Amino acid sequence: MIELTNTEKVYLILERNGIPYTLMMTLKIDKELNQKILKESIKQVFNQYIILRSKIKCQNKKFYLIADEFDVNQIFKPVTLNEDNSIKSVLNEIMNTPFDVYNDPILYIYYIIINEQHYLAARWFHSLFDGRSALIILNQILNVYIMNINDEIVNLPELKRISYLDIIRGYKYTREGVKIGSRLKLTLLGIAILYKIRSKKGTGGIFNKEDKNGGRLLFKTLNLTEDIMNPLNSLKQKYDLTDNDLLLSIIILAYINFKLENLHKEIRILSFMDVRPRSEGSLLGDLVTGFYVEIDSNEAKDEISLIKSIKKQMDKEKKSLNAVANFYIGEIIHLTQEKIRKLTKDIFTLSNMQVTNVGNLDNIIDLKQQNIIKILEASFFVPIKPGLSSVISIIKSNDIITIGLSYLENVLSETEVDNFFNQIKSVIKKLGKKFGSEKRLEEGAIPIP
User: Fold this and answer.
1) Which of 10, 186, 297, 378 has the fewest C-beta atoms lying within 10 Å of its C-beta?
2) Which domain holds residue 281?
3) Measured between alpha carbons, how far is 330 from 325 in angstroms, rounded to an integer?
4) How confident is the model over 356-386, as pLDDT tens digits?
């Protein structure tokens, strides 16, 4: 039995129109899988890791993950459809399906076949773990499938679920090598962060316009292939940029162009950090590691100045304890439902938009035999938080960067989403002219709306 930490409880509160806060990861694979063997592989992985077969229980106003019996037929959801259907309609239905926190499994695995294309997907309750952890689990399932196909003995590595409290108590350094230090230091820093948040004002705008009657969640993707991004390699090298630095710059420039008529002076993007121990293949239980990238819209008219500013802020954040302190202060404060709702709304209303970068799938997925199964594309659906009407996700796989945008259909229109994606294309073309040749853009890694 594992008691949920304060920050993990947040996701028991965040829901919209009765649909709890669940995420979805979808992998497009190159061939059909044997469903009988796949189901057995899922069963083996779930049997190995207690956390996967746990359920959320509430006792005396405390929330726990308690190991439970599980039925693989309830967890594994195969879907085969004819040509009249589309993957977008299937995934939209899954994303908008009610999720009973106390009775449903906290992780579902879907195998979808449509128009001779094959997808392996996971949907999970966010108090369980984050997107990077979901990829670790999907990787385990595919590796066990390969072992079973080859009649090998299945050996699964140890896989520990850790929280930020575990990191604070058991580790001396963050992922970036910053010394964690004393709890007093973290407390003071955490209080300063909360004060800074409370002293700010929301920036407003269509991307963070909360509407409780926003209706269904929809999701659309934009693919940036290797030949599209290659012209920007010289830009990355010249200014020592990571993919994340560059993509955040592109998204902010696109936002400026998209909102040019009614642009607020300050642009505030909520981004995220992964501070789990570098040496461990761990699942991260605590999740809100957000920090703001702040740009003056007047200064952002010069692309290089904006890029330098983003890199400076990202580098500073990596060398700070802000993410860990943010969690620690949340753990020592008694978070009631009212406090959780107010704090989360304050945090997310401040940002123009939220951007979650899962990272390079090739660094997380390590299939034992790539010639048996190849992952062609990936997408990551992140639900909407209070104060926001859309969320952006970024994931890279097979040299394809997929930008996903989840949004409320009655707040953002598909036309507005298309216009924003067109601005992303325009920014890349403009930067490409300065640093390389223009390349054709391809849209829709997984053609969801």
Assistant:
1) 297
2) 164-374+382-435
3) 8
4) 888 888 878 887 766 788 889 999 998 887 7
37 and 134 share one domain: yes
φ/ψ of 121, rounded to 5, equals -135, 155
295 inside domain: yes
Neighbours of 116 (CB within 10 A): 7
User: What CATH number did the domain enclosing 154 receive?
Assistant: 3.30.559.10
- The rounded distance, in Å, linking the Cα atoms of 267 and 173 is 31
Under 8 Å between Cβ of 98 and 19: yes
Amino acid at 94: I
Tens digits of per-residue pLDDT, 1-34? 777 777 777 777 766 555 667 889 999 999 999 9
Question: What token pair was written down for 13?
Answer: 């509160």
- d(Cα 295, Cα 298) in Å, to the nearest integer? 9
pTM, 2 dp: 0.89
Q: Encode burial over 13-37: b for 16+ CB neighbours within 10 A, e otherwise.
A: bbbbeeebbbbbbbbbbeeebeeee
Pairing of strands 19-20, 290-296: unpaired
